[in-house]
Design goal:
7-stranded mixed sheet; 121 residues; 4-stranded antiparallel sheet; mainly beta
C-alpha cells in the first residue's frame, strides 16, 4: 500500500547540479516526514536531509549550503536539489518516508529502492 519511487540520479561532474525526486504513492497513510539518505560503498547509510509536512528541514553538515530539500504536499513528492556536488557525494541515495495512518499514533518508515548518484572529479 506504500510505494516510494526515486528518480533523477545519474552521472554529474564535480561542481555541477542534480535534482532528485521521490514520489510516495499511498492512499491510506499520512506523511509526517520525508527525506533523503545515502550510502556509499563500504559506508553506513547516513542522513542527507529531511523535511516535515509543515516544512521544517534538517541537513547533514556535509551538505549544508549546497543541497536543498523541498516537498510538494499535494503530490506527496520530495525533492533534493544538489548543487556544487563533490566526488564524496557519490552514493546510492534513498528516499525515506515517515508515515502514519490517519487518526493513529504509530509511525512507519518506508524506503525507496535507491538511485545512484556519481560525481566525477
Amino acid at each position: 500500500q506504500v510505494r516510494l519511487v526515486e528518480s533523477g540520479g545519474g552521472l554529474v561532474q564535480a561542481g555541477g547540479s542534480l535534482r532528485l525526486s521521490c514520489s510516495a504513492s499511498t492512499s491510506i497513510f499520512s506523511i509526517i516526514t520525508m527525506g533523503w539518505y545515502r550510502q556509499a560503498p563500504g559506508k553506513q547509510r547516513e542522513l542527507v536531509a529531511t523535511i516535515t509536512y509543515g516544512g521544517s528541514t534538517n541537513y547533514a553538515d556535509s551538505v549544508k549550503g549546497r543541497f536543498s530539500i523541498s516537498i510538494d504536499n499535494g503530490k506527496n513528492t520530495v525533492y533534493l536539489q544538489m548543487n556544487s556536488v563533490k566526488p564524496e557525494d557519490t552514493a546510492v541515495y534513498y528516499c525515506n518516508a515517515g508515515l502514519r495512518l490517519a487518526g493513529t499514533s504509530p509511525t512507519y518508515d518506508y524506503w525507496g529502492q535507491g538511485t545512484q548518484v556519481t560525481v566525477s572529479s
